Amino acid sequence: MAIREDIEKGNDSVHEEARVPLLQEQKTMADEEDGHTDQTSSKASLWMVYLSTFVAVCGSFEFGSCAGYSSPTQTAITEDLSLTLAEYSVFGSILTFGAMIGAITSGPIADFIGRKGAMRTATGFCVAGWLAIYFAKGALPLDIGRLATGYGMGVFSYVVPVFIAEIAPKNLRGALTTINQLMICTGVSVAFIIGTVLTWRTLALTGLIPCAILLCGLFFIPESPRWLAKIGREKEFEAALQDLRGKDADISKEAADIRDYIETLQRLPKAKMLDLFQRRYLRSVIIGVGLMVFQQFGGINGICFYVSNIFESAGFSASVGTIIYAILQVVITGLNATVIDKAGRKPLLLVSSAGLVLGCMLSGISFYLKGHNLALNSVPILAVAGILIYIGSFSAGMGAVPWVVMSEIFPINIKGVAGSLATLVNWFGAWAVSYTFNFLMSWSSYGTFIIYAVINALAILFVVIVVPETKGKTLEQIQAAINA
Question: Which residues are the signal sequence here (predicted)?
Fold first, then answer.
């Protein structure tokens, strides 16, 4: 089975019990059809797939805009609204709390009102949130706005990759799904860059632009045919599939496969959270949840949310450092998408974790030297080198690969509930790290990075000892290896 078919499963497994996005875990017979979709989907007929993907990834860009907002605005917001460190830490981290709620509710929403309906819901929350931030006169409306954008971000994290996977033909699914992660990084980077020249209120208004494009675009694209089939709207299902494959395409075989797959999925028993702790599932759960723990507690969201402040603290230009950081993040994430199926998951995780340790150590050393008035000329260079090595290393492996591995290791009957657990752990880690980061930096700036370095070093051991290589294996072979 195609490895990338399930990428979204990682980002998206935020949901329902055995409710698996209807395309992931494509049936073996669908994979054995040598280019059936290729034959029925010529380049000329795929314009609707590309348009639908473009509209959907506006949600991914919005996700990135929400995540990247707090870093370039920290100084201005704290000064304009006279916020304490604790109040700004709440503002920065409450985004991830909202995202946790959005992630939990996204699956039921997307199943009840459709993928397009879920995207409209997420967009509505983001619009309300940005407006609340723009008009904020104190901490409370600021936090309410941030919570609302976080909720929208959590819904987008599930529904966008699921929608793309459910509309794309098999031969394009991997490539189109990777655009989701690339657009998230682009949204973060654009917020970082334009945040260096715009006021914090104006930057909040720029978050409305992808929302407007998304809302307008949804009127011109079809609903997910798999969702329509699942709820029994047969005529609309066939019309949507025909729109996506081209008016002259023969969709009869693909439509029959979708119906068969949905019937198979609905016959599976619904898994419960306690089922995950059965011996046969335990190793899969340890791998999936463990990778999420190390991904988040290695410090990424603290550094991402407050990178401008880190550069300022080290005596380096916040605007220049942030721009370099933003560009590097997009470039390496794009390169990562091209090598993940060639290099393998485990090597990328190991190289990435080693780079994270190095980046944390360099940053820690720079703050140690500054705190003890030693080699002060070296401090900015070491800090910038450390942060750039850190984000480059994270983008090269630990950012995306845990989601890919998680999508591959869970059996289909527990994938929804196991993915929910792993994703909730991920969002909780994001909240915990983003909330505590400023307090840790106040306690000891170099100590903070040493703690993160130790956690990333433990991640290397975890990957070596526990995580299997899944490259080039079918999902059935992966399950056999895990349970051996």
Answer: none
Give the separation between CA 270 and CA 273, rounded to whole angstroms: 10
Which token pair is 307?
A: 């990178």
Give the closest residue to 174 by CA, choosing from 402, 396, 182: 182
Q: How far apart are CA 179 and CA 400, in angstroms?
A: 12
Q: Where are the domains of the chain?
A: 45-221, 272-483
Distance spanning both ends of the chain, measured CA to CA: 20
Which CATH number does 45-221 carry? 1.20.1250.20
Query: Cα torsion for 174, 180, 186, 191, to the nearest 10°?
Result: -170
φ/ψ of 327, rounded to 5, equals -65, -45
Instruction: Please list, in sequence order, all residues whose beta carbon lies within 8 angstroms of the beta carbon of residue 373, skipping any fewer than 6 positions away.
Output: none
Mutual orientation of helices 279-297 and 415-443 as an angle, nearest 10°? 30
Minimal CA–CA distance to 434: which of 93, 153, 94?
Answer: 93
Cα 20 to Cα 262: distance, rounded to the nearest angstrom: 10
* The residue to which tokens 């709820």 are assigned: 231
- Residues 272-483, CATH architecture: Up-down Bundle (1.20)
- Please tell me the predicted confidence (pLDDT) of residue 132: 97
Structural element, H or E, at residue 20? none
CA-nearest of 227, 394, 204 to 295 is 394
Of all residues in the chain, what percent are helix, strand and coil, respectively (each to 5)?
A: 80, 0, 20
DSSP state of 396: I
Neighbours of 175 (CB within 10 A): 13
**Which run of H or of E encompasses 417?**
helix 415-443
- Which pLDDT score, from 0 to 100, does residue 457 have? 97
- Of the candidates 150, 164, 142, 144, the one whose C-alpha atom is nearest the C-alpha of residue 49 is 164
Within 8 A by CB and 6+ apart from 98, the residues are 146, 147, 148, 149, 150, 151, 152, 153, 154
pLDDT at position 292? 92
| Fold matches, 45-221 and 272-483 | yes
* Overall average pLDDT of the 391-420 stretch: 80
Name the more confident of 88 and 272: 88
* Cβ–Cβ < 8 Å for 90, 217: no
CA angle, 213 then 54 then 131, to 5°: 30
Q: Which residue has the tokens 């850190």?
A: 390
